[in-house]
Amino acid sequence: SQQGEEDPQALSIQEGENATMNCSYKTSINNLQWYRQNSGRGLVHLILIRSNEREKHSGRLRVTLDTSKKSSSLLITASRAADTASYFCGETSGSRLTFGEGTQLTVNP
Amino acid sequence: NAGVMQNPRHLVRRRGQEARLRCSPMKGHSHVYWYRQLPEEGLKFMVYLQKENIIDESGMPKERFSAEFPKEGPSILRIQQVVRGDSAAYFCASSHHVLSLAGAADTQYFGPGTRLTVL
Fold it and tell me: pLDDT tens-digit profile of B90-105?
């Protein structure tokens, strides 16, 4: 299976609901980075969480990291239609980022 | 403060031609990374460069692909004799790469990508 594997592959929710996306990784990471990609566009960096951190917040985003389970989650609270995008986690080992296939989030107005 | 810039944004080539993709990192960044994204897939690491040096090219095909990051000017990803399977979005990222005490790599900032279509 792929490293930096996101789950679910697709998620559809109503505006105002919370969205949770999970990511599992395989290596001993330096840090883990979450990105958003709108259709046909480049990646936008959301949050970087280091291997010695357990939780990090940025606005409506909350990221957790469980190094014992090699997993991370991204929570988007009070979702908006503009949050519709693909979300990728990238595990950083050394200097390389290894991405999974992403979670496609659709927020319905 | 301009972000990572890539050009061209769209590139169309016929089979057998050469494709040159350019990437200008963010100001102050001396580390550049190239990734490829096939349709409906995640990004795959290709190569990591510092000024005038290739640090890690383990994700780059051995043939037809090359990358450079000269002392002056942008980083170039070059694909010779393109084939249809090379059609993809190619993203460049840059980082300042200040290592923390934990030895952690820095945030990578991505450009808008170059969409290569091989006819």
Answer: 999 998 865 544 444 5
With beta carbons less than 8 A apart as the criterion, state whether B21 and B60 touch: no
Q: Which of A108, A107, A100 is nearest to A34 (CA)?
A: A100
User: B104 and A30 in contact by Cβ < 8 A?
Assistant: yes
Q: Is B103 left (phi over 0), alpha (psi -120 to 50) or beta?
A: left
Interior angle at CA A97, CA A88 and CA A5, nearest 5: 40
B103 vs A30: CB contact, 8 Å cut-off? yes
Minimum-distance CB partner of B105 among A41, A44, A95: A95
Residue B43 and residue A88: Cβ atoms within 8 Å? yes
- Write the pLDDT tens digit of every residue in B4-62: 999 999 999 999 999 999 999 998 888 999 999 988 778 889 999 998 899 889 899 99
> Residues A41, A77, A16, A69: is their CA dihedral positive or negative?
positive
A100 to chain B, any CB pair closer than 8 A? The answer is yes
d(CA B30, CA B41): 28
Inform me whether the pLDDT recorded for B66 exceeds 80: yes
- Residue A52 to chain B, least CA–CA distance (Å): 8
CB atoms A52 and B102 under 8 Å: yes
Nearest chain A Cα distance for residue B112, angstroms: 4
Q: Residue A40: pLDDT above 80?
A: no
